Amino acid sequence: MSGPQWVPTIDDSKVRDGAYVPVYPKGVGVLLVRTDGELFAIANKCGHMACPLEGGKLEGDVITCPCHDWRFNVRSGQFIDAPELSLDTFATRVEDGKVFVELKEA
Amino acid sequence: MTDDVWVYALSTCPWCRKTKQWFTDSKIAFEYVDVDTLPVDEQDEVAEKAYKLSGGRRFPVVVINGEVIVGHSPDKFLEHLKGWGG
Amino acid sequence: MGSAERKDSLRYLYERVVGPLGYKFTPDAELADFLLEQEVKLEQDHGAPYCPCQGRTGVRADDRAIVCPCIPFHREHFDKMKRCWCGLFVHTDVTDPDSLPQFPPDEG
Ligand code: FES
Predict the structure, then answer these.
(1) CB 3.0 to 4.6 Å from A7: which of A25, A37, A79, B54, for a disulfide?
(2) Mean pLDDT of chain A
(3) Interface test with C, best of A49, A85, A87 (most C CBs within 10 A)
(4) Where are the domains of chain B?
(5) Is the whole model's pTM more than 0.95, yes or no?
(6) What is the ipTM of this complex?
């Protein structure tokens, strides 16, 4: 096991504003989300019953799970209806037009 | 004195079963309907009635002499049963 | 997935949700098993593990609030009862769930 590491994913240009793209750095399901021009990365797995969040509606900072409509803030990962529950979030950075996602451990 | 008792229930709900059991054990005549086992075209109408009476969607809904009690609550049932000094 | 397997996976999924909210499965194992069984059936028939003691309206915005565990959507009420409406979950400090009264949100 090693420490955190930056893993390359897709071209930054592929993540349009107000939209998201699922990526799988090292097999980890991550959703890259751009809202108000800012890029975020959250676990692509709902905190309710583990549905992938892709297919869900993104409105501003909030993504709604397509399965049973649990809503999460894409900046913090927080579940809107109970702040005790949240999704993992990942740091991102763009280098040479590519989005890198920081995974905690490999 | 006879009481008029109606129980709106769901077949999937253990509290509804307990309520029915309580009235049976107390030897109080009652009528009931398991909303979810009605023919599909009747379910909505009866459910709607229960929602209106109870102001919510929680079951059981018990109507004793016109008074509505939501939940399995023998203490409250007793309060509204005439035969029991309520 | 068979219904026994689905029950197990619901157990696993729910545990992770209700723990941080201060709840646990009811210590009444028979009740928990019965309720999970109903939820598996409800999920098969109606697409989601709805609360076995609450009725659907068919309006998605309403029905989402009774998908188990529905604690986040009824927090104040359930916290007052120390139990969720159907009784599948109780506050972590509850050892005798039968002693807890069931009452609607505007009472108690
Ligand atoms: S799995 Fe996402 S809301 Fe149920």
Answers:
(1) A25
(2) 96
(3) A49
(4) 5-65+74-84
(5) no
(6) 0.93
